[in-house]
Specification:
Elements (H helix, E strand, L loop, with lengths): L1 H13 L4 H10 L7 H4 L2 H8 L3 H10 L1 H12 L3 H5 L6 H15 L4 H22 L5 H7 L1
Length: 143
């Protein structure tokens, strides 16, 4: 199936480890290189599959209007949340909520809130992994 092959190709391209190629792929999403549903998914795929999530998010935020046209009414509110998939910091979660409100309005609040909660959870897990005592060891040593 042609559609399935396109998605597999996008997955391979989006998982690259070269920053310049990731930026080129993001830029090409706006050129008509792929069908609209695939083109609008490129920032989210780059964010999820490569180490360039911040770049993918910034691209999606800065080009939201054009990507939203490609995504259509069903996919537009998910553009920024999908591009934030790799975030692991609570400040990034808050930024997502603020950026989403600015570009998508109240219609995007639910999608942003769900992804922000996932980001907060990843941040908590990451914090726990770096400090398995939850700060208790630090507190007991300070006493």
């Amino acid at each position: 199936d042609g559609e399935e092959e396109r998605w597999r190709l996008l997955e391979a391209l989006a998982s690259g480890q070269d920053r310049q190629r990731a930026e080129q792929l993001l830029a090409q999403s706006l050129t008509g290189i792929a069908p609209a549903n695939i083109a609008s998914a490129i920032p989210g795929m780059v964010a999820q599959l490569s180490p360039f999530g911040e770049e993918a998010y910034r691209f999606a935020r800065d080009n939201w209007t054009r990507l939203a046209e490609l995504a259509g009414s069903w996919g537009r509110t998910g553009l920024l949340p999908r591009a934030a998939r790799g975030f692991t910091d609570v400040q990034q979660a808050q930024r997502l909520i603020e950026d989403q409100r600015r570009v998508a309005g109240a219609d995007g609040d639910s999608a942003a809130a769900q992804q922000a909660e996932s980001i907060r959870l990843r941040a908590a897990v990451r914090q726990r992994e770096t400090d398995p005592t939850g700060g208790k060891l630090r507190e007991s040593l300070a006493d």
